Amino acid sequence: MKILVCIKQVPGTNKVEVDSVTGVLKRNGVDSKMNPYDLYALEAALRLKQEHEGSTVDVISMGPPQAKAVIYEAFSMGADNGALISDRKFGGADVLATSYTLSQGIKAMGKYDLILCGLQTTDGDTAQVGPEVSELLGIPGLCCVKEIVSADEEAIRVNLELPDAIEKVKVSFPCLITVQKDINEPRLPSYLKKKATQDKEIKVYSFADMDDQDESHYGLSGSPTQVRRIFPPVSDKVQEDWQGTGTELAQRLYAQLQKQKFI
Fold first, then answer.
1. Residues 6+ apart with CB under 8 A from 152
2. pTM value?
3. Measured distance CA(174)–CA(137) in Å, rounded
4. Cα 6 to Cα 222: distance, rounded to the nearest angstrom
5. Average pLDDT for consecutive 10-residue bins of the chain (263 residues)?
6. What are phi and psi of 100, to 5 degrees?
7. What secondary structure letter does DSSP report for 18?
8. Which one-letter DSSP state was computed for residue 206?
9. Rounded (to 5) percent helix, strand, coil in the chain
10. How far apart are CA 16 and CA 30, in angstroms?
């Protein structure tokens, strides 16, 4: 079984500035990490690899050169090979352009039986990339998978979490699934694997490697979503430092609650 996991490097904090002109996140100088949902997808892939002898797990990411860090993290968890889609022409992509670029990169990597994605990313929260990639690749896609029941050489059986029910589904390979965060508990990276793979080659795909050479399908040019206005959230938090005895503080707190009409 050939398995591919889509992973992404996301900001490690919610204190990220937004470019007021382009509407994209300013990622330079911001601490980053692997998207938490992708860790669950990677763990699911690694467990399938353990259960099915001869299986392989590759990872692919899209981002600037520093996104290689999450690929090396995937190596330290047990992934076999990794590739990065990186080119300035891909910058500023919205969900559609991102999905299209990923699908082009996956085609460049080769054919896979199963593609796994995290349900969503913590910096976008759209949960749309996985389904769009499956559509662009022309393969079946399943979302909100909470359990992988079994898999064989031809198909995989999963349980989907719907709003009011759990649906049991069998889908033939090749296919793509997005997984929920309660599907498993991701393993910790292995120090020995990290040392053994610290110089492992990561294939980098640029615009020149894409089958589609129409620049209007990538980056800002291929992004129909237009950000009309960007502004920081307004904070109405007020902090006061009170000093006094317990009785004085209690009376002051009571008076404040009355003033705010909570009591």
1. none
2. 0.81
3. 10
4. 21
5. 96 64 58 92 97 96 95 97 96 93 96 96 87 97 95 95 92 97 94 96 96 94 80 74 93 92 89
6. -65, -45
7. B
8. -
9. 35, 25, 45
10. 7
